[in-house]
Amino acid sequence: MHSDQPSASDSPFEVADEVDEAALARVMRVVPLGAGVLAGAAVALLVLGYLAIYLLVFIPRGTIG
Amino acid sequence: MRNVERLCLAHFWVAFGAFLAAAVLGTWQMWVRSPLGADVGTPGQYFMSVTAHGVAMGYVLTTFFIMGFGYFVAVTALARPLPGKAWAWFAFWMSIVGVIMTTVPIATGSASVLFTFYPPLTGSPWFYIGLVLVVVGSWIWCVLMIVAMAAWKRENAGRPVPLAMFGTVANAIMWLWTTVGVAAELLFQVIPAALGLTQTIDVGLARTLFSWTLHAIVYFWLLPAYIAFYTMAPRAAGGRLYSDTMGRLTFILFLIYSLPVGMHHLLMDPEHGNGTKFIQVLLTAFVSAPTLLTIFTITASLEIAGRLRGGRGLFGWIAALPWDRPMVLAVGLSFVMLGFGGFGGLINMGYGMNAMIHNTSWVTAHFHLIFGGSVVIMYFAIAYEIWPRLTGRGYTSLAPLRAQLWLWFIGMMVMTLPWHWLGLQGQWRRVANFNYADPIIAGWGPWVIVSFVAGLVLLASALLFVRNLLVLHLSPQAAIARPLYALAVHPPQRVPAALNGFALWNVLVLIVMALAYGYPIAQFAIAPSPSAIVHRIE
Amino acid sequence: MTELHPEMHERRILGTELLWAFGVGVLVAATLSMIVFTALTMNINPPSNVERIDPKALHLSGEFAEHNLGTTVAADGSVTTRVVATQFMFVPRCIAVPQGRRVTLRFSTPDVIHGLLITGTNVNTMVVPGYVAQVHTEFTRSGDLLMPCHEYCGIGHSEMWATVQVLPEGEFKPDSEGKVSCAQR
Description:
The complex is a heterotrimer of chains A (about 60), B (about 550) and C (about 180).
Chain A: H1 21-27, H2 33-58
Chain B: H1 5-33, H2 43-76, H3 85-107, E1 121-122, H4 125-155, H5 163-194, E2 200-201, H6 203-231, H7 233-237, H8 244-257, H9 274-308, H10 316-320, H11 326-348, H12 354-357, H13 361-391, H14 399-425, H15 439-442, H16 445-473, H17 503-526, E3 532-533, E4 535-536
Helix pairs in contact in B: 1-2, 1-13, 1-16, 2-3, 2-4, 3-4, 4-5, 5-6, 5-8, 6-8, 6-13, 6-17, 8-9, 8-17, 11-13, 11-14, 13-14, 13-16, 14-16
Chain C: H1 6-42, E1 70-73, E2 79-86, E3 89-91, E4 94-98, E5 102-108, E6 114-117, E7 124-127, E8 133-138, E9 143-148, E10 161-167, E11 179-180
Parallel strand pairs in C: 2-5, 4-10
Antiparallel strand pairs in C: 1-2, 1-11, 2-3, 5-8, 6-7, 9-10
């Protein structure tokens, strides 16, 4: 095969990345605000959709228990 | 010395070959059941196809992909050769024999029992025995994963197991627990019936044992996608993983809570009462936790990457992300499908609300979107990410990769969203042809056609995926060595033993399973239910 | 600007995760509580009547013998509909139910797993050989509904469905034995 190419087994598992620690510290002051709002909004929509289907579709179709 | 490239590639090509065949079958099925294909195909052919499609997508694509990816992670994340490689090849070939043994009776029409079996419907014994061989092969993989991690821990005393391997072994242990249900059902009930050794079968017990496997198996399929979320996506985006600890916790929560929830697939069944059903609904609510934690942690990780690239303001980091990279694009598309698919899932498990949609097209929509969509798109992304390492070749352009991912996303959304709607209208499952003359059914026709057209888009995407991988094998460009795994914001120096191993969690699994499944299974011995006569399919 | 000490970073990260977990935990708990509440007060449960019956002797059992199938109004006014699901039809193929009255639907099968739903309602149950599936409901609107078999039961599964006629009070008339059949149309 490709004897001169790196093998999957040759690589170390933890290679330093290109992230600048100072820049990381700066962004970490804000993170996870954006994530919290985005993910939070998504979950809120999920719950609202759930309630909507429960009250507007499921309940009107009657109980069967 | 080449260590695992050939082993991984062998597994992946079997997986993707089965995937492509299944995609063709799925598209044919959608044509046949639509108004456009009303005169095409017999029911016998249709259910043969459904069986093959389900087995290929649910048992072959998944198991072989996960095994191949596991071997890759064991070698690259632990930076040591795979222990027991001969066993790995033995397991591979045994699973191949199993696949062939399963496929032949399907193709001859003597195993149209679907991938969920449905005893007392009983097919050829070779169908089941073949699947048992695939499962036993995967058990060997599980043992090798556990051995690889244990060997690394011995050589690296006190250090945290790399997260990718921790997740892989969590998945392996979970799979060992998961397969107990279906193995018991097949070995003690279905195969004896198929061989003619028994003439009756306890259907309630069979369904309950199968349900043990049925939900946990989807987490077996899903965990590799989450391994990519935590360990590959942050690196691909140019950032850091927000929290390594949450990654470990997520895999542990999946190990514990994937298993004792299978009965939410039996909410409409008469062999169990409200009490046990409600307990498992409660536990199902718990298994939503690791996913909810993951979407926050991964979104935060991407936010780090986006802000490092200059994104400002509340959402500016989103546009700043390197969406031209396939792994990043796939994660974004996967999360969108996860939102819709998860929504459907929450309704399915909603106790009484399950009655609104059980066995309708809503269910078909849900698992195609959540598995075929959010999970399989990550399988594509993982393959794209590691293929250069496996082949030593590099991509000359990433555009066809992105195009393939977009086609998959669009096709999956357009195919499944109408199915949700049709499910609410009462469209039911596993139908070879609908009577579109019926006034209630007539209105469904146009939506079925829309789904079918989207299915054609998916088929195109599937073909493009295989093409992209094949082309890489022949690429004139050499692979550029790039590190794969993400660092955490704070790479852990030490983690507590509970987050570095599974001894404690195995005990918890045992306790929770006893609570959730103890009585529901025992009841079949305490108050034996009348058995049904075995119905052999000719 | 001063940098946060690395350890505080980790604590802060875990703090945000805890906050998030708490927030979604509240939402999940609220949703679950709603399910529990409606289960207890409005009887919103999945059909869970655990009642065993021998599938091999179904046609012999008094309740599911053929002459006893369909809708029957008992002396006390309660309405019960009994249907047998078999490969590949429901017996009877058409059932009549009253609008606006509580109906008990009972299903069983002598052969393989079936299932059914009634379109536009929450009536949905599996029919498992060895058990009687029971559903209570009230049909609010009159008209014809579809009751397909929704679980794969073999090659003829696609053709297996029944009709449910929801009859307004005036048209729902039991005969001398208390049985109500579908209106001929």
